[in-house]
Amino acid sequence: MRSGLTTILTMQRENKTFLARLCEQAERYDVANIGGELTVDERNLLSVAYKNVVGTRRASWRIISSIEQKEETKGTDEHVGIIRDYRQKIETELEKVCQDVLDVLDEALIPKAETGESKVFYYKMKGDYHRYLAEFASGPKRKGAATAAHEAYKSATDVAQTELTPTHPIRLGLALNFSVFYYEILNSPDRACHLAKQAFDDAIAELDSLSEESYRDSTLIMQLLRDNLTLWTSSDGNDGEAPKEDKPEEEAQAPASEAVAPAEEKPEESKPVEADS
């Protein structure tokens, strides 16, 4: 009987992983509503799947917004109208995808998270998707998205500081994205630099205790933290390469434009690189 039950549970897990991979291809993500906490593999599949969808739209929005600004400068009203309509279409799509992710997080993933690692992962992800909404929103909607992002990042940080080591890749990725939030959304470069430097210094202090399996991921994110610090503290920090975000765990499944955020999406404007959710 025990053997049969084990087989059934194993099949359910295998089916769930298969569904996640299928969802990634079909751009359907209701797999998160299957009962129980997701495994690390399932969690990463879901994160990368959503990131693939939202990443292309964020890239498109940046490009279109840049073109719109240039056309406004030229005074070509007809072109501006067409471009604005397309930008608003992208924003509607972005808002829907982000809200879908946030609903899954609030209704299915965060309530079932049991480990400190999964709690940090999901709260960080929640902060990221509220941040994506704040990138294109304005007025009260932007303020609401920024406030929600800050609260989620703060919740993730509170758990990370007590349950994850300073060299843990998820804790480092959280610090990376939280600092990007301060820099880009709250326009607070001092706070962004302080957070990024603190995370980098804390990790350096414990580098000798870094486990072999997480060495590559942790040192990569530390390099991204240092790259952003260099970018933000340079005299011409507003021109040049984009700021950096973290990569998803399943980076092989992410599109090339997601591996390093948005330098090629808007090369004329300097943006930090962030950690993918």
Automatic annotation (TrEMBL):
Domain of life of the organism encoding this protein: Eukaryota
Limits of the 14-3-3 domain: 13-246
Bias type Low complexity, positions: 253-262
InterPro entries assigned to the protein according to its UniProt record, in alphabetical order: 14-3-3, 14-3-3_CS, 14-3-3_dom_sf, 14-3-3_domain
Region (Disordered): 232-277
Biased composition (Basic and acidic residues): 263-277
Listed transmembrane segments: none
Residue(s) at site: Interaction with phosphoserine on interacting protein: R58, R131
One protein family per Pfam: 14-3-3
UniProt record similarity statement: Belongs to the 14-3-3 family.
Protein known as: 14-3-3 domain-containing protein
Species, as recorded: Penicillium olsonii
Upper classification of the organism: Eukaryota, Fungi, Dikarya, Ascomycota, Pezizomycotina
